[in-house]
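Sequence in, structure out.
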Amino acid sequence: MRGIDLELADGELFGLLGPNGAGKSTLVKIGCGLVRPSAGRALVCGTPAGSLAARGATGYLAELFRFPGWCTADEVLSLHQRLARSHGGEAERVLFLDEPTSALDPAGRRTVRGILEELRARGIAVLLNSHLLSEVELVCDRVAILLDGSVVASGRPDELMRPRGVELETSKGIRVVERASREDVPRLISEAVAAGEQVFGVRVLRSTLEDVYLDAVGEDA
């Protein structure tokens, strides 16, 4: 890591994006206390990550988990809470998720999104590490894009996305007016009508989170 400064608020869903080797899983493991930072500090609910108090307030789902097949889901959760000396419930205020939907079908991913929204409503902070940009864009309040252990872009998804022009569908076909914005729409419609065109539809174009990601890390990352 090369000096990452992030802070999660109560009830915030925060997405970590980046190519393989960018430092996402390492950052999650530092927050869980599984890896010690070489510099700086990581705090969970005001206490050092990995401390007894921090472990009791933390939930963690690893990317490569190996849960015993003879246990029920409730037994697995109970075992890990006992190991972390956590009583669960409101005491757990931070949840670290490392690629939680990578092996799920679309229905399973939608179920996970619903769970995440419930956690947000309960005031639980969630740090979500994922390669699925569409999932992050749908559910996360803020995102950070990592590259080589550094944050290269961060903010709300709608803040990171940029206007890409306005698409007009008229009787003369479909055309894109580049560098136009939402404020230009009334003028563009008036000009088209004045030129004798019928206007069938107007769409303001914006970059996607995928566009932002590729601009930040490069096409080959």
